[in-house]
Amino acid sequence: MQTLEQLKNGELKGAVSLKLAEGLSHFPQAIFELADTLEMLDLSDNALSELPADFGRLKKLKILFCSENLFTALPEVLADCPILDIVGFKSNRIETVSAKALNPNIRWLILTNNRVTTLPAQIGNCTRMQKLMLAGNRLKELPAELQNCRNLSLLRISANQLSELPRWLLSMPKLSWLAFSGNLFNIKPQIATMNSIDHLELEWGHQLGEGASGIISKARWRSNDEDKEVAVKIFKGAVTSDGLPEDEMLCYIASGNHYGLVKLLGKISAHPEGKQGLVMELIPERFFNLGNPPSFASCTRDVFNEGMILSAQQVIKIASTITSLAAQLHSHGVMHGDLYAHNTLIDEEGNTLFGDFGASGFYDRSDIELADALERIEVSAYGHLLDDLLSLCKEADTDQTLLKLATLRDRCVAPLVSNRPRFQDLVAAQV
Q1: Which of 44, 198, 383, 392 has the fewest beta carbons closer than 10 A?
Q2: Does the pLDDT of residue 191 top 90, yes or no?
Q3: 428: DSSP letter
């Protein structure tokens, strides 16, 4: 992170990227000194409420982040930046999104955790849009014009006030990752009672990781019946970019047991701060992340460590596990919403564990049209995962089983949603 003093002193001349977080209440005019070079500007974690009228002077700006500020409206001056590609205004106080504020060049828009009640029809002019993050707002409907955004691949509309899921959404040709829980149309099914584990039975160890929805720690579970090392996830309780932690927890519980899931041992009770949490089996240390989250450039597609190579055996085993698990989830009316390599752990033999239910939600299996379309949207995400797996394998063009998987991949991402197979079809088709 740079400083305002460095900027004013000319020490950042020629900078391509700039990040300032100093409690700023006004846009620093010195930023315009970088107008000839600046491509990424991050002004998150300040106290800004507006951008200057001449903001468009930043003609080379591609990425703008203004999260955790005090904006009440998405600035209309965003339209004056000709090549603006990614815009993030997460966790502000935005109520108004005007038509002019929607730069038609935008490919990735983040408005998570604001107060937006309506979106203008002109959002349909953003035909480059691939990723749209709207969770945690007050939307009562989506403009039908959004269906003109034919490149839209990832959509987050969880934790809003939508009374129905628009049917036109179900036929969008590239939509693959959809999160919709926490709306008025959502009905949570009855969840089987879980084993209750008293907080006092857990001896806490070191933190293993932290995500948007919670913190995972190592712990020892000591009770009359158990004395074992476990992993514990304590949910933060706040809305995330994907949705509500409560929905994540309930969907995970409802998913049932599967060899591709980390086994749930119980639900925490009597937490001293009243927080919710889950106790899970500890993942063996031999497992590692298959992929990394999308980059700014890849937008909706995962990226992988340089030099990563998978064997044909690994690819087949991973693909088979994910297919079987996804079929089980949808048989329980659970949409995962985030079927990605970065949510997948593997070992050297291709054994696979899939997780992160942060974007998951329940849907009504008795609504045949809805259920069929939602499953085939998730099948598209699986198709992209297959594409990633095959791209990492040197045998993809010669191994007969992998050639068969390539054919399945193409069927999974068919533009016409109804032409895609269901997960049970994929289970039957794979060896």
Answers
A1: 198
A2: no
A3: H
